[in-house]
Amino acid sequence: MIITLDGPSGSGKSTLSKQIAKEYGLIHIDSGAIYRTIAYYFNKNKLSKDQYINSLDDIDIFYKKNGVTLDGKLLKNEIRTSEITELASKISAIPEIRDKVNNIIRAIANKTSVVVDGRDIGSVVLPNADYKFYIDASIEKRARRRLNQMRRKNILNNKSFNEIYSEIEQRDKRDMSRKLDPLTIPDGAFIINTSDKKIKDSIKQINQIIRGNNENHIKHS
Ligand code: DC
């Protein structure tokens, strides 16, 4: 089985994907974490933009059960900083980088049942998925969630709510307007708006759809 969850940052797609993976016994692939790890590698090795493509084959990157490893080490908070968040969004517009990430995802999805979250998974990477969802929420709510997440991870660095709000706004714009595989609502996706919902209520809605009880939900086309 293949389930995809696409949507903007902070919409809750990662949290929901983890939960779905647990409920249905699927492997969860956080595609954003792969872009972030590549960005982290470029940043760590102080590579310039014109060195990015040539260095792609040298990256020792793997998707493991608990996340992405670089040189055998599982990366956690170091790929969630503002600097890496910004760079990941920028490098994700480069075609060779998108190919690399897509190959990693498809290799896993070819072998096993997965739930994958990202921006273009249902539209481009795995368009034949069994169930596609588009997870959305207001910028206000997403900025609030991001602030709380950064505070919890201790990577807030005195950033204000307004700064985070405008970072999210800019990133949305970049992710939605890039030429190659921008963030869109995939055909056949069910839209779930998480702005005023508890996680368990979004999960309930997703479960209803997966179990075939979807007369109240409309597919995007
Ligand atoms: O989901 P995230 O915030 O961890 O993703 C980080 C960046 O990676 C995001 O700004 C855009 C990019 N990305 C992408 O282009 N395509 C995906 N499928 C997932 C992420």
Strand pairing plus helix content: what structural class?
alpha/beta
Helix count, per DSSP? 9
How many runs of DSSP E, i.e. beta strands?
A: 8
Question: How large, in whole angstroms, is the Cα Rg?
Answer: 17 Å
Average of the residue pLDDT scores: 94
Largest sheet: 5 strands, parallel
Give the names of the bound compounds: 2'-deoxycytidine-5'-monophosphate
Strand fraction band?
15-25%
Helix content: 40-55%
Low-confidence stretches: none
What is the helix/strand order?
EHEHHEEEHHEHEHHEH
Concise structural overview:
This protein has 221 residues and is an alpha/beta fold.
Description:
This protein is α/β, with parallel strands linked by helices. 48% of the residues lie in helices and 16% in strands. The protein contains nine helices and eight strands. Strands 2-6-1-7-8 form a five-stranded parallel sheet, sandwiched between helices. It is globular and about 50 Å long. It starts with a strand and ends in an 11-residue tail after the last helix. The mean pLDDT is 94. The protein binds 2'-deoxycytidine-5'-monophosphate (DC). 2'-deoxycytidine-5'-monophosphate binds at residues 9, 31-32, 35-36, 88-89, 92, 118-121, 171, 175.
